[in-house]
Amino acid sequence: MAADLLGGAAVGAVFGELLRAVLEAREKAKNFKPQLEQLQSTLSNNVSVIKKIEKYNELLDYPKSETQLMIEKMKEGEQLVRRCSTVKWNYIKRTRYADKLIKLNSLIDRFFQVDMQAQQTRDNKEILLGMRDLQMSFTACSSNGSIGVKFSQDGIIRPCSVPDPPEMTPGLDVPLEELKRELLRDGKQVIVLSAPGGTGKTTLVKKLCKDEKVEDKFKDNIFFVTVSKPHNMKVIVRKIIQHMGKDVYEFQTDEHAINDLERLLKEMQSPPILLVLDDVWPESESMLHKMKSQLPNYKILVSSRFVFPKLGFGYNLKPLSDEAAETLFRYTVGGDSYVRDKKLVNKVLRVCKGSPLALTVVGRSLCGRPAAVWKSRVKEWQDATIFHSNTDLFVCLQSSLDALDDKLKECYMDLGSFPEDHRIPVTVLIDMWVELYKRDEDYLYAILSDLSNVNLFDLVVTSDDGSYNDHFVVQHDLLRELIIHQSLLEPVEKMKRLFIEISGNSLPQWWLEQNLHPVNARLLSISTDETFSSSWFDIKAPAVEVVVLNVRTKEYTMPNFMEKMEKLKVLIVTSCGFLPVELSNFQLLGSLSNLKRIRLERVSISFDMTTIQMKNLQKLSLVLCNVGQVFSNSTFQISDAFPNLKEMDIDYCNDLEALPNGVSDIVSLKNLSITNCHKLSQLPEGIGKLVNLQVLRLASCTDLEALPDTIGNLTNLRFLDISECLSITELPVQIGELYRLETLSMRGCCSCDLPTSITNLKNLEVVQCDEETAYKWEDLEACFTDLRIEVPKEDINLNWLYK
User: Fold this and answer.
1) Which candidate, 664, 652, 596, places its Cα nearest to that of 627?
2) Among 614, 671, 622, 672, which residue's Cα sits nearest to residue 644?
3) Lowest mean pLDDT among 168-177, 204-213, 267-276
4) Could you read off the pLDDT of 513-549 as tens digits, one per residue?
5) For a tag on the chain, would you pick the N or C end, based on fewer CB atoms within 10 A?
6) CA 312 to CA 322: how far, in whole Å?
7) How many C-beta atoms lie closer than 10 Å to residue 162's C-beta?
8) What is the pTM of this model?
């Protein structure tokens, strides 16, 4: 009766038959029990989602190709499952079928549960629902650059989903039980978990929210919000309301936001509700009092480095025991085989004082290193009592920085340019470093990898398609503070990099007095909050080469003093607020002759660009921007504004329906990337004029119907990516004229027919595709000298979303 669960809907019926086949096969196919159990779990968890799929298809005016593709996959899956019941013991065949079951499970799981931004190997239906129904709510749910946004199984963006805890969490079982006991009993409404930074508070909270008894009580009414510093009550309430699937709008005051939230919670008719506020700072105490309510069954769990005795029950998380600390340390350095000197280990444990962060950072810095390095490092740490206070912890962590060579340390220190709890796109860092350190992209990515290997941050790769668009750096807030602390040790006028955080319109005192002493920093980062009114004071910074502006207001005026930064080469503007920012005074950039790279993220480009001309700009990146108003302007010619561009990257620009006028006239372009722009339906015929183009990425432009015939003129093209371009059903005959093409990526294009001219691509080395398309290429393999067909494995890993 599995099919009966879902009624007569087409996708539901096929889903039910697959579930029935799995239930039957579990009893017969003992060799595949783990894989079938996992597949059954995935299917059972998504029964309710299937009921809504056809409903959404009826509501949305777009082709049902994604649903039809999933129906076909599930039919194939049913046949695969039934064949497993007949497989006798044969190691090779068993392994092959097991791999297919794992892939089937990943494919189905991906269809239902794939996250955001770029969040990146996503289910196209959820992207289109999010982009077309909710428009720019995607931007809203990623406010403050915070990490922790998911698309739920019902197609609603859930920015307050509980992140998964790390795999290894020794020493937290007792605190977990004690906190759980307090949380589940009737008593104080607010529970405050406090401990110094790096002690494992956030990890404990994640484990608690994932506990079976806690989930059983609160069910889907657990809201996980990272507060950080500074907090914004209105943004927090918006995220909670959006998580509930309600309409989101702007609030005039904090009181309006709180009142609306309480009204919605009351409408839920008093089910148990748990609000988790993670990483709360002292200045947010008033907000915590406002979040309290007279509602029954309503609990607030707060994690903070600080104690709030007036709020409610307090729980102090202690450092790890010696046994737990050693377990974590040995795990971090790679297991017992890497740790043979017990005395040396004990010295490290004494230095780390039970701090999970210190144990992890120190352990990774020693992983794989010879004994002499261990002894040298431990000797340096001997006199440091790193857990006595945060300052002492800095002492220990600083020694890990000191162990870096100069090039690694210089790059690492630049990460202080970005706000707390902000995921940093690798492409942003590379843009900065190419100009600051004069190195190529591959060399700089190797530096990122080296820094990640010593656990100074997490390097998260969500998709490996040959670019770095889906690669991100996630910092720990304490390590970011270490960078800030380190930078403040020098006088302002001698700093290599200047990190400025402005609260309201209160500028640092040194800035107001700076007329006498110009700063000599090469990197300038300015972060402003929601109340900043763009009231700038002049600053003399003639040596600045990179400017990073982190914005939280709806409107933002570019500072006039930038016009005097004659050495400026890179500009990065990111809206970390709830809505895209509207920039003004952008035209001042036209006078900066050395400006080579501009990246705008979550920016509404409504300013007049017809008068702007930047002859030396080489790279333009627009991510999550509103570009339709400018690009559809018939008087705007992008070739006049940026005549010598070499790279253009447009990603997740929801209102992009056509490329801007004149793009085909920028013959200097070598790299053109238009990805995740779902309303883009066609490319200009004139694209064939881009004779110097070497890389063309069009991934996940789901409405793109065809490649123009003139594509055959791109005779220097070496890389073409049309992955997930679901509306392309055939490649043009002229594609066979791309005689220099080396890599063709067409994952998710199983319905795309290959013309016979494809065999003319004699230099083609790699084809990346799904298994169905691979069969087509295997039939043509004899026509190529050395063709490699790659079928990438799906690796659905959402941990990068979380702090």
Assistant:
1) 652
2) 614
3) 267-276
4) 766 678 899 999 999 988 899 889 888 899 999 999 9
5) N
6) 31
7) 22
8) 0.65
